[in-house]
Amino acid sequence: MSDAYYLQLTEQLRHLIDQNAAQWEGKLPAERSLAERFATTRVTLRQALSQLEGEGLIHRSNRRGWFISPARLDYDPTRDAGFNDYVRAQGRQPRTAVLSMETRPHPPAARALGLPDDQPFHHIRRRRYVDDRAVLVESLWVVPDRAPELLEIYTDQSLWGLLRGRWGHHLANRSIRMVSEALAPIDAEELFVAPGTAGLNIRRAILDDQQRPIEFDEEHWLHDSLCICVELSGQT
Amino acid sequence: MSDAYYLQLTEQLRHLIDQNAAQWEGKLPAERSLAERFATTRVTLRQALSQLEGEGLIHRSNRRGWFISPARLDYDPTRDAGFNDYVRAQGRQPRTAVLSMETRPHPPAARALGLPDDQPFHHIRRRRYVDDRAVLVESLWVVPDRAPELLEIYTDQSLWGLLRGRWGHHLANRSIRMVSEALAPIDAEELFVAPGTAGLNIRRAILDDQQRPIEFDEEHWLHDSLCICVELSGQT
DNA sequence: CTGGCTAGTTGGTATAGACCAGAAGTTTGC
DNA sequence: GCAAACTTCTGGTCTATACCAACTAGCCAG
Question: Mean pLDDT of all residues in chain A?
């Protein structure tokens, strides 16, 4: 038994959520009504809710309230199954919205690919959903030489499928970095969450089988919506 | 420019920290003095500090104050270099403290390894440091048949080195899962941080080259102390 | 010089209340 | 029947204050 009241509250809320999940249809009652039910302040109540948010049990949708988080999506960044494929493989419904497309330089991408800072890229920014919940925003920077008319023909299909099918690229070498982050205001807004919400930042630099740079991409995931799973075999 | 004051505060603090990092020797001034300096309340000040904590720029040591976080440790969970090796390879100083050793069943480990729930394990719990900052606690569950007298001979060397050198095991197949978490009170206490601090949970199930279960381990990292880096080559 | 005690400082927790802007629901007007 | 306008609700932010427990540093006694 913990001493701090908000930690007791956390446990009580956890049980309350377990029992009423179905009845509430995924949405928790208003903070004010929960605070009243537990005879405490909204401040303390929110502290307890934030605990559960950190655990990934619940989340907030911007100014709309607290919601019970669906199961995490299994995600293996070392395989290159497309988003749509692995989401569907887990019985979930994927969706993608393209937010912007343009061609311009992006020094961080250039550096990650070993190109000069003023190297222009085809830039695609998109938001991805699982079962109608926005779970990540992603920016792709593709070297124009590798996919010249990309922005004319791209709608929302698999980018890797395009690169392989249309331009015959083999995405052979990948450098992947993952760090936890607090979502920047702009990313948070595009995911309909409060700024500072916990997220996971995944960056990939991709070269082909001749070490030529193909693309760089950066994903911002809601921290509670994925589980990184890797299966390995055959080393020492 | 953001509207919310605590977001402006966050930026001001960020700059303040940048400029005074050396002078403060890693430790921020007291919350009350910072609140006074910015003519605001401790509550709002803490909200801004929490933002920076989420970004991994600063962290708290339980009741001792706010500290500037050192650079993240690069960590490749797909390679099996020992903790000591890869910490030193990055010019940092590793340290390990053994917290407990015992032999008992642990159903989650059993399930991950495909063994019956009542299967006993040699259990080692240890805390790991980088440059004298505790960055993770780890629990290891080793199948006793694979390393019978483990608990008698183990001090704080590399476990994988032992398994390979003394018992000749080849750690061939690994199943790795990583999820963000909020540190449970017990883990938080062992890392000297407040309960609910953001963490990263890494679980590994390890089999040998004949698919025999060897060990299961679970690590709880402080979220701001690692960067997961994976380099891959040679697939499509 | 050492070890234990003490007083002050600091972060952790909690209360009570307030205002705002965005979301949702309802009514109104065409 | 539908769209626009309005009201209500709700989460997001902020102030001001208070108490406690743990940590720190300094004092004191041995």
Answer: 90
